């Protein structure tokens, strides 16, 4: 199984796939795959145009042993701007032992 299929990417675009509901799989994806799924979802949601954000936003999946860290990055101000602006980005990391090895 490829990483793109685990992340839910298809020819039409990303989709959320819960592998725990399907009896065929019977396992939970690794924490690394869950972190990649969450990063793909947040990246997709950030790139949506404002008109499609209400209907086209993908929900975040429930992930075990994954830590989300919000990073605040200062953006270079334009000429004449008095108030600095910041970009807020999320990074996802594994917690503890990965996949019981």
Features:
flat, 26% helix, 101 residues, two-stranded antiparallel ribbon, single chain, alpha+beta, 4 strands
Query: Main sheet?
Result: 2 strands, antiparallel
Percent in helix: 25-40%
- Beta-strand fraction estimate: 15-25%
Class of secondary structure makeup: alpha+beta
Q: Can you tell me the residue ranges where pLDDT is under 50 for at least 5 consecutive residues?
A: none
Q: Which H/E pattern describes the elements?
A: HEEHHEE
How many runs of DSSP E, i.e. beta strands? 4
User: Which strands sit side by side, in order, in the main sheet?
Assistant: 1-2
| Overall average residue pLDDT | 75
Bulk shape: flat
Round the Cα radius of gyration to an integer and report it.
17 Å
Domains, number: 1
Helix segment count?
Answer: 3
In angstroms, what separates the terminal alpha carbons?
A: 20 Å
């Amino acid at each position: 199984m490829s990483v793109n299929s685990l992340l839910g990417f298809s020819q039409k675009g990303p989709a959320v796939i819960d592998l725990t509901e399907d009896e065929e799989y019977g396992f939970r994806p690794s924490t690394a795959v869950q972190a990649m799924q969450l990063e793909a979802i947040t990246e997709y949601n950030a790139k949506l145009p404002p008109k499609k954000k209400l209907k086209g936003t993908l929900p975040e999946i429930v992930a075990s042993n994954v830590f989300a860290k919000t990073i605040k990055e200062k953006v270079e101000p334009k000429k004449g701007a008095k108030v600095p602006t910041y970009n807020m980005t999320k990074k996802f990391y594994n917690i503890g032992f990965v996949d019981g090895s």
